[in-house]
Amino acid sequence: MGHELFSNNASNNHPPQIHSLHTSPQEVQPPSRPQPWPIIGNLNLMGALPHRSLHELSKKYGPLMSVRFGSYPAVVGSSVELAKYFLKTHDVLFTNRPKFAAGKYTTYNYSDITWSQYGPYWRQARKMCLVELFSAKRLESYEYIRVEEICNLLQDLYSSSGKVIMLKDLLSTVSLNVISRMVLGKKYLDKSSEGAIVSPEEFKWMLDELFLLNGVLNIGDSIPWLNFLDLQGYIKRMKKLGKMFDRFLEHVLDEHNERRTSEGENFVAKDMVDVLLQLADDPTLEVKLKREGVKAFTQDLIAGGTESSAVTAEWAISELLKRPEIFKKATEELDRVIGRERWVEEKDINQLPYINAIVKETMRLHPVAPMLTPRQSREDAVFNGYDIPVGTRVLVNVWTIGRDPTIWDKPDEFRPERFLGKSIDVKGQDFELLPFGSGRRMCPGYSLGLKVIQVSVANLLHGFNWRLPDGMKEADLSLEEIFGLSTPKKEPLQCVVKPKLPAHLYGA
């Protein structure tokens, strides 16, 4: 390739100065990229946690770095300026997705919102999400579901008082139940439901596997001629997972279609699958929504809505268990604003700045997606005079941005106070904090995820005192993560709760 990328300025204080070189890569070795090896490029520099590997490389090569993953060139942006360039200023140039195996085998050949290519189909899907599925009116109409399921979570915790609990299991259950009822119309995974096609444990495993496989560095995605060997075994796992999800989703669609047929003209859409099936019948759609598309969107809705809230809430409690003084401040705010005779409701959240600050600080240090899902340039682009050729893969490392010392004071410390009195939000407009991404490819369901996270965390802190199991010290609490499309804790949090509100609030 006749273009190589390098930076004269590795500081995050200024946009990097980037130049275009019209000499061959053999003649010039640019200083802003690690030396690629034959065939594999820079894959040898990627560890088990690629966002951390690229973070360390960016310290050496600057906030804009050129890397090579096997046969493909890529650029990594690790600063606010570059996030804004890729996700806002030239968002439309970088809206494509690389055609990774995960999109082919786990999302019906790129039929979902995450992996579909930019074009009429994707634009229509995004419009469906914003206008039909995640409109403020529809989310408000489902608030009673969120209230009921969070109450169930609080009752489960109350009944587990004094025992060691695995918090992620309980959090996953509540978020999965919320999403199941909103998207599918019922708790398909309830052990008591008749003809359950998947057990709750199996389905949670499927979701974990989906997020892992959609984030892995699969060698065949970088070196296509090795794809058939499936050296890491990922393709085999993707195919197995795809079949498991398809069996479940076929069952869901069949049940919904049976109700539509039996009710005829009296049919009223009750959940998001009903809405999607109605849209699939709409003759005015620019691109016909096929059955595969309905299944792919349904899978996106279930997975995205479940993972982000459970992972973020677990990280928040983990960080707070290391800092009892933050628990105390949160309790003081909750007692003052909410009192001790009721639970926190969604409408209360704006009156709880410290709780909001805890959520934002958790998302800064532990973004659900530490590297936003890869983008790919649709056309040749120019940044400060440097040509980024069409087809270049683009990675935005929000994990590094969240630790940039030029933006954040003592960036490795968990300090919610840094957000008090500041207007930094997580809605994609403040590029210092992008847990849900930004621009056209931003997570379309972020408003739902945020509601569930905020209310869950607020009520977990409001209703209980928390401690580590006997014999475990704060220093023993691991904050290591697993890498995938999301980054949950490597060691699930075990803890002990003790109720602190009147017993009748827990349904006792």
TrEMBL record:
Residues annotated to bind heme: 443
Cofactor(s) listed: heme
SUPFAM superfamilies found in the cross-reference section: Cytochrome P450
A family per Pfam: p450
InterPro entries linked: Cyt_P450, Cyt_P450_CS, Cyt_P450_E_grp-I, Cyt_P450_sf
Domain of life from the UniProt record: Eukaryota
Keyword tags: Heme, Iron, Metal-binding, Monooxygenase, Oxidoreductase
Single Gene Ontology MF annotation: iron ion binding
Comp. bias (Polar residues): 1-29
Region entry Disordered, spans: 1-34
Listed GO biological process terms: secondary metabolite biosynthetic process
Family: Belongs to the cytochrome P450 family.
Protein name: Cytochrome P450
Origin species: Rhynchospora pubera
Species classification: Eukaryota, Viridiplantae, Streptophyta, Embryophyta, Tracheophyta
